[in-house]
Amino acid sequence: MLMKRILLVNLLLFSFSTMLQAQPKFNYTSAWKKVDDLINKKGLTESALKEVKTIYEAARKEKNNGQLIKALVFRVNLQQLKEEDADVKAIKEIEKEISISAEPVKAILSNFAAEAYWQYVQNNRWKFYNRTNTTAFVKDDLETWTIDDFHKKISSLYLASIQNEKLLQQTKLDEFDPIISKGNMRHLRPTLFDLLVNRAIAYFENDESSISKPADAFEISTASAFDPAADFITRKFVTTDSLSLQHKAILLYQKLIAFHINDTKNDALVDVDLHRIEFVNRYSTHPSKNELYRLSLNHLLSQYNNQPVVAQAAYLLAQDYADYAATYDFKKHKADDATNPRYYYRKAAALCKQFINQKEESEGKTNCNSLLNQMENKDISITSEKVNITGKPFRSLLSYRNIGKAYFRIVKMDKQAFEELQSRNWEDDYWKKLTTLPAVQNFNYTLPAGDDHQTHSTEIKVSQLPVGTYMLLASGDANFSLSKNILAAQFFHVSNIAWMHSADEFFVVNRESGQPLAKATVILWEQKYNYDQSKNVYTKAATYTSNANGNFRVTKTPDNNAYSRTLEIQYEKDVLHLDDRAYAYVYRGKKEEIDEAKNRRTFFFTDRSIYRPGQTVYFKGIVTTRDAATGK
Question: What is the reported pLDDT for 16?
Fold first, then answer.
C-alpha cells in the first residue's frame, strides 16, 4: 500500500513538472508589435507603457537579458514623455536597476547610465558654464554638480562597465540582439567587451574643453603612441591628470588591441588599430605627427601585404595624400622642392586603384572608389571681363582639371535669348539648348599638365568681335555632349560704352579712351513682378540723353514694386545693357546628387513661447528634405 502511495506521489510530481515545462514562453515579437502600434499608430503612450512593464516582468522572470534591457530602455523613454525632470528620473531609474542586476546586465546598464549622464550634460551645458568646484559638500542633487563632477561620474560608469573583462570577453552578442542595431559589422564587434569598450572610447575621445585642466595636463606627445600594435600595447602613458579623457581613451585602446592581438582573423584588430591611429593623429602634439601617421598606415599595409583587411588603411593614407595635394600652390612650390605636393593626387590614385581592383568587398574599397572618383572628376570654368572692347581680341581665364583639350564656341545672343538663358541653368534642358545654338566662332586649345589631377589655370585668346552680347561655351569634348562631359558657359558683352555714377548723377564715356559720349540715349528699365505671367518683367521707366560732358541725371522715383533698375545705353551703332546678374555657369555632366539626409530640415513648434527653468517643453516637428529622384 505504501509503495502505491509513493508511486502515486511520484506520478503527480512528474505530471506537475511536465506541466511547468510545457508552459509556453512569452511572445516578445507580438508584445513589441503591440507596443509599436500603441505608440506610432494610436499615440497611446500610457497604454504602451503598461505593455512595456508587462514585457519587463516577463523578461526578468525568464532571465531574458536582451529583452529585459530593451524593456527598461523603452520604459524610461516613455516615462520621459509625461514627467517633469524626466532625464534626471531616468538616470536614477537606470542606477536603481544597476544595483539589483548581475553581470553582464550590470555592465550594460552602467554603460547606458554613463551615456544618459553625458546626454544630460549636453542638453544642460549652459547651466554649468559659471559653476565652480566645491569641497566638503554632499552633492546628491545633479543641479549642484559642476562639469568636472559629471565627467568624473561618466568616466567611473564607463570604466565600471568594462571592469569584468574576462566575462565580457567571453560573452557573445547574440543574447543582446534585441538592443543592438544590426548591421554588417558584427565581426568587428564580436563580444560584449568590444561593444562596451568602443562605446566608452567614443566618449573618452571627445575634445571636452570645459574640463578643468591642471598645469601638467596630459598630452599625446610621444612618438610611441603611433607604434605598431604589438609595441603600442607595451608602452607606458603616465600622467597625474586624473580627469584627462584622452589618457583614458589611449589606455582603453591598449586593452582592446591586446585582447585581439593574437586573433586568427585580423578584422577586429585592424579596425581598432586604425581607430587608434586616427585618434592619436587627431590629438598628438608631436612635431612630426604627419610623418608618423603615414608611417603607421604604411606599416599596416606592409604587415598585411596589402590584403583586403587593410583596405581602410589604404583609404586613410590616400585621403592624407589627397589632402596634402590640395595644398599645392604653383606660386609657392618649386618643381625641385622635395616637399612639393603637386603629384600627391597621383600617389593617392595609384594606392586606391590597387585596392579597388581586389575582388573582396570592404569599407576601404568603397571609400577608395569614392575618393578616386573625386580626384578624377573633370572640371572647367571660364572667367571673362563682363564688357570687352569692340574690334580687339581679348583674354579669358580658363580653369580646368583632368582635361587635356578644351573646345570652345562663341554664340551671339539677342536680347530675348539672353533673358531666357539667365535662369534654370541647373537643368539638362537648359544645357541642351545652349549646345544647339549656332556659333559664330569655333576653336580649341590643347592644355598642359592635365595628368596630376590638380586644378590649373591658363589665359586663352578670344578673337575680336563686333558689338553685341555673347556666350562663350567651353566643353571637355569636341561634341559638346551632356554625357560624361563637363560644360561651362560665360556670358559677356562687346561694347565701347562705359558709364559711372555717384548717386543719381551718371556719366557715359568711351570704354577705351575715357572721352565723354555726348547725345547718348539712355533708357531706364525697372524690373517688376508680373502676377499675370508669374515672372519678373522689365518695363521702360524713363529716357534720358547725355549732355556734352556725357552727363545725365536720373530724376524718376522708383515705383513701389520695382526692386531692380538697369540702364540701356545707345550711342551711334553701339549698345550696352548691363543687368549685373551672374554670368558664369557650369554643367558637370550629371545631375546634382541630392543627399536627402544632408538636405533634411526640421521645423519645431512648441506649446508656448517662453518657459520657466525646469518646465517640460512639449513640441512637434515637421521634417522636410529634397527627394533624391525628383529634386523636389
Answer: 39
